[in-house]
Protein backbone atom coordinates (compact mmCIF):
# COMPACT_ATOMS: atom_id res chain seq x y z
CA UNK A 1 0.00 0.00 0.00
CA UNK A 2 1.35 3.38 -0.98
CA UNK A 3 1.42 6.15 1.61
CA UNK A 4 -0.56 9.21 0.54
CA UNK A 5 1.19 12.47 1.43
CA UNK A 6 -1.34 14.97 0.11
CA UNK A 7 -4.54 15.33 -1.84
CA UNK A 8 -5.69 18.76 -2.95
CA UNK A 9 -7.48 20.59 -5.72
CA UNK A 10 -5.19 22.65 -7.94
CA UNK A 11 -7.33 25.52 -9.20
CA UNK A 12 -4.73 26.46 -11.86
CA UNK A 13 -4.99 23.09 -13.60
CA UNK A 14 -8.54 22.15 -12.50
CA UNK A 15 -7.16 18.84 -11.24
CA UNK A 16 -7.29 16.96 -7.97
CA UNK A 17 -3.71 15.90 -7.31
CA UNK A 18 -2.69 12.99 -5.10
CA UNK A 19 0.99 12.82 -4.07
CA UNK A 20 2.46 9.63 -2.66
CA UNK A 21 5.56 8.97 -0.55
CA UNK A 22 7.18 6.95 -3.35
CA UNK A 23 7.14 10.04 -5.61
CA UNK A 24 4.15 9.04 -7.73
CA UNK A 25 1.51 11.63 -8.51
CA UNK A 26 -2.02 11.03 -9.75
CA UNK A 27 -3.73 14.01 -11.34
CA UNK A 28 -7.48 13.79 -11.97
CA UNK A 29 -8.77 16.20 -14.63
CA UNK A 30 -11.99 17.35 -12.96
CA UNK A 31 -13.35 19.04 -16.08
CA UNK A 32 -13.08 15.84 -18.13
CA UNK A 33 -14.58 13.73 -15.36
CA UNK A 34 -17.48 16.13 -14.83
CA UNK A 35 -18.25 16.25 -18.55
CA UNK A 36 -18.85 12.50 -18.37
CA UNK A 37 -20.99 12.28 -15.22
CA UNK A 38 -22.73 15.60 -14.48
CA UNK A 39 -25.94 16.03 -16.46
CA UNK A 40 -27.65 18.84 -14.53
CA UNK A 41 -26.86 21.76 -12.22
CA UNK A 42 -27.50 19.69 -9.09
CA UNK A 43 -24.94 17.09 -10.05
CA UNK A 44 -22.44 19.79 -11.03
CA UNK A 45 -23.00 21.55 -7.72
CA UNK A 46 -22.40 18.33 -5.79
CA UNK A 47 -19.16 17.69 -7.67
CA UNK A 48 -17.99 21.25 -7.07
CA UNK A 49 -18.64 20.84 -3.35
CA UNK A 50 -16.59 17.64 -3.24
CA UNK A 51 -13.73 19.09 -5.26
CA UNK A 52 -13.33 22.17 -3.09
CA UNK A 53 -14.20 20.72 0.32
CA UNK A 54 -13.48 16.98 0.15
CA UNK A 55 -10.92 16.33 -2.61
CA UNK A 56 -9.86 12.99 -1.12
CA UNK A 57 -13.44 11.71 -1.14
CA UNK A 58 -13.79 12.95 -4.75
CA UNK A 59 -10.59 11.14 -5.74
CA UNK A 60 -11.71 7.93 -4.04
CA UNK A 61 -15.03 8.03 -5.90
CA UNK A 62 -13.33 8.65 -9.25
CA UNK A 63 -10.64 6.01 -8.81
CA UNK A 64 -13.13 3.50 -7.42
CA UNK A 65 -15.52 4.03 -10.33
CA UNK A 66 -18.35 5.12 -8.03
CA UNK A 67 -18.63 8.81 -8.92
CA UNK A 68 -21.50 8.42 -11.39
CA UNK A 69 -23.62 6.49 -8.87
CA UNK A 70 -22.81 9.06 -6.19
CA UNK A 71 -23.86 12.00 -8.37
CA UNK A 72 -27.05 10.35 -9.52
CA UNK A 73 -28.01 9.66 -5.90
CA UNK A 74 -27.18 13.19 -4.81
CA UNK A 75 -29.26 14.80 -7.55
CA UNK A 76 -32.26 12.55 -6.81
CA UNK A 77 -32.23 13.69 -3.19
CA UNK A 78 -32.08 17.36 -4.19
CA UNK A 79 -34.88 17.01 -6.72
CA UNK A 80 -37.11 15.43 -4.06
CA UNK A 81 -36.51 18.21 -1.48
N-to-C CA distance:
41 Å
How large is the radius of gyration?
13 Å
Global mean pLDDT: 89
Global structural class: alpha+beta
Estimate the helix proportion, in percent: 55-70%
Shape: elongated
List unreliable stretches of 5+ residues. none
Describe this structure as you would to a colleague.
The model has no long low-confidence stretch (mean pLDDT 89). The chain has a 3-stranded antiparallel β-sheet. 56% of the residues lie in helices and 22% in strands. It starts with a strand and ends with a helix. The radius of gyration is 13 Å and the shape is elongated. The protein is α+β, with helices and mostly antiparallel strands and 81 residues long. The protein has 4 helices and 3 strands; from the N terminus they run E-E-E-H-H-H-H. A hairpin with a 4-residue loop joins strand 1 and strand 2 (15-20). The longest helix is centred in the C-terminal third of the chain and has 14 residues, at 67-80.
Summarize the structure.
This protein has 81 residues and is of the alpha+beta class.
Write the layout of secondary structure elements.
Elements: E1 4-10, E2 15-20, E3 25-29, H1 30-37, H2 41-53, H3 55-64, H4 67-80
Antiparallel strand pairs: 1-2, 2-3
Amino acid sequence: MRKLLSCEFNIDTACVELKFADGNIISIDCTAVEDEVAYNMYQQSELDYLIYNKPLEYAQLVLGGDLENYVQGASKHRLMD
